[in-house]
Specification:
369 residues, 44% helix, alpha/beta, eight-stranded mixed β-sheet, 8 strands
């Protein structure tokens, strides 16, 4: 008798770098489909391979689309064509030098009184791929559980939007996927706090901030959820995917260490440091937890090294055409690395698990109107 499995996909946050995640998954699915004799079908339904998808911020956009059956090609195209409108006032790209510091300082001053970007363009883009479907409708139609971390800005408490994949889960049923993604992606400084009227008609308005503040790498959220809802005799398999990694570290001088508001770019660098550091430590904690359970197999896709000339294009809001092209190139390099690792390495449980997740996928039907 085949062993029962409960499969989880975890997707990091990272702003516009979500195009890296979507492109890496799309290319890897296509390459492995060819490897397994699936006639290299495009527009594959990768989301259907998972029982649970968890995504934070930009990961919530990719995750919600996969759960809804939207082909990854459409998600990549969304980032490719809409990013410059979504992030219409990005930080200046830094290549070194005093002039860059002045430009960043001017940017921080200009946006000192309000968020750098307004959410209208993002909401419109999300509407084109997710429509008006709610969390409950998604689960009823696809049977795929979805968890999206965010923060309740009025109470400073974590809030995880969840489909009704357990009998006790009803709070978030009527929330639209579009609002769920906007709530999780409302990064401080970059976007305004996202307000959503209580969909159950209670007259209350909830205000949400980016879930990356506490779960930028949401793999622990997915792992804990799986341990609660997966059948007790099921093996839990978790695939974790990042957004390409942060720029390389830089040396600090004593003078730079004594930085103030401008040194932190008006707070932008604090947000970025919080997101990146949380993502890295969570990967380690999840690995230790998975090993201790005796029933979890966990694998995180590898990221290609960051070339020095690419570091300036990895900002959370750098949505220029040039930056998008760099991220897609990195996704292609990472595809090569992961494909080689999965198909030529020792057949470990992690490799066998990941290969199956991308093998023999069916074409995506897309979101139903």
């Amino acid at each position: 008798m085949a062993e029962k499995t409960f499969r989880v996909l975890s997707l990091d946050g990272g702003g516009v770098r979500g195009i890296y995640t979507a492109s890496l998954l799309q290319q890897l699915a296509l390459r492995i489909s060819r490897f397994t004799g699936n006639d290299a079908v495009n527009r594959l339904d990768l989301g259907a391979r998972f029982n649970l998808i968890v995504g934070t911020s930009t990961g919530s956009i990719v995750g919600a689309a996969l759960a809804a059956g939207v082909p990854l090609e459409d998600v990549v195209e969304l980032y490719r064509t809409r990013s410059k409108y979504i992030f219409h006032s990005p930080q200046p790209i830094q290549r070194g030098g005093c002039f860059d510091k002045l430009r960043v300082g001017a940017w921080a001053l200009w946006h000192g009184g309000r968020a750098a970007n307004q959410p209208g363009a993002l909401a419109k883009a999300l509407q084109t791929v997710l429509g008006d479907e709610t969390m409950e409708q998604l689960y009823q139609r696809r049977g795929i559980a979805l968890c999206v971390p965010t923060v309740d800005a009025t109470t400073n408490r974590a809030w995880v939007f969840k489909t009704p994949h357990s009998q006790r889960l009803t709070r978030d049923n009527a929330y639209r996927l579009v609002d769920v993604c906007l709530a999780s992606a409302a990064a401080p400084i970059y976007f305004p706090i996202h307000g959503v009227n209580d969909p159950d008609g209670g007259g209350q308005k909830h205000w949400f901030v980016d879930g990356g503040l506490w779960a930028n790498n949401p793999v622990l959220v997915g792992l804990v959820e799986a341990l609660e809802v997966a059948p007790s005799d099921a093996r839990i398999e978790v695939l974790s995917v990042g957004t390409g990694g942060a720029p390389k570290s830089s040396l600090l001088t004593a003078r730079q260490a004594n930085r103030g508001t401008f040194g932190w770019k008006g707070g932008v660098d604090i947000v970025s440091m919080s997101l990146e550091s949380q993502a890295t430590v969570t990967a380690y904690l999840a690995k230790q937890l998975a090993a201790s359970t005796g029933r979890v197999t966990l694998h995180r896709l590898q990221d290609s090294p960051v070339a020095p000339e690419e570091a300036g294009y990895l900002g959370l809001d750098t949505g220029t055409e040039e930056a998008i092209a760099h991220m897609e190139k990195r996704a292609s390099r990472s595809t090569d690395i992961n494909y080689s690792d999965l198909t030529t390495g020792v057949a470990s449980p992690e490799r066998r698990m990941t290969l199956y997740m991308f093998s023999n996928l069916k074409p995506a039907a897309g979101r139903q109107e």
